[in-house]
Structures are given as structure tokens and as C-alpha cells.
Amino acid sequence: MAKKISIKHEQSGMVKTGFYGFSWTYLFFGWFVPLFRSELGVGALHLLFTFVTLGFWQFIVCFLYNKQYMTRMLTSGWVLAGSDSDNVLAGNALGVSTK
Fold first, then answer.
1. Which letter does DSSP use for residue 21 in this model?
2. Is 54 strand, coil or helix?
3. Which of 11, 31, 77, 83 could form a disulfide with 46 if both were Cys (CB 3.0 to 4.6 A apart)?
4. 38-42: long-range pairs with CB below 8 Å, 24+
5. In terms of DSSP H, where are the helices of 1-99?
């Protein structure tokens, strides 16, 4: 089950909700999820892989997508902005340091 965590862009101050854990949204909506999150290239790539694997890709990626998305966000200037305990839990789940 996906858990929510606030993330904040260090330069602009913009705040978003990030997710970590299993992605039910990706399981049901597949390659549309990256499109909803403004990742057009990732969405196109996932569409291609979904067609090539006859949908099997969608089942596998629902376990991985939130971690991949959050890793891309955290490496592009976003930081975890929840409470200290929430940041530690999210950091452990994502495999990143919270300090």
C-alpha cells in the first residue's frame, strides 16, 4: 500500500505529495500514471514496454514505480518535507539518507 510523504523543492519552495510503497494506481492505470505526474518520456517508455510484454510489465512495475518516481524527484532537487519520523520511514523505504 502506498504511503504519502510531503516533498519540497529546495529552490522554488513548491510542495508536492510523494508516495512510497506498492502503487495501486499504477496497477489499475498503468502507463497513464507517469503521464498524470508529467513524466511524458517515462510514460511513453512504459506504454511501449506494456505492449511488448502484453501487460506483464504493468504488473511488475506496480511494485517499483513509486520508489523509482521518488528517486527521480529526490535526485532533481526535491527533499522529504514531512515530520522527522515520516521522513525516516520514507527514507528507509526508499533507501535514502534523511540527513
1. S
2. coil
3. 31
4. 39/69, 39/72
5. 24-29, 32-36, 40-52, 56-61, 65-74, 84-94
The angle at the Cα of 9, spanning 61 to 80, to the nearest 5 degrees, equals: 60
Domain coordinates of the chain in residue numbers? Answer: 3-94
Place of cell 510523494: 18
Amino acid at 10: E
- Here the cell at position 39 is 513524466
What gap in Å lies between CA 78 and CA 97, rounded to an integer? 13
Cβ-based neighbour number of residue 30 at 10 Å: 22
Between 48 and 97, name the one with better pLDDT: 48
Determine how many CB atoms are found less than 10 A away from the CB of residue 34. Answer: 23
Summarised one tens digit per residue, pLDDT across range 21-77 is 999 999 999 999 999 999 999 999 999 999 999 999 999 999 999 999 999 999 999
pLDDT confidence bin for 82, thresholds 50/70/90: confident
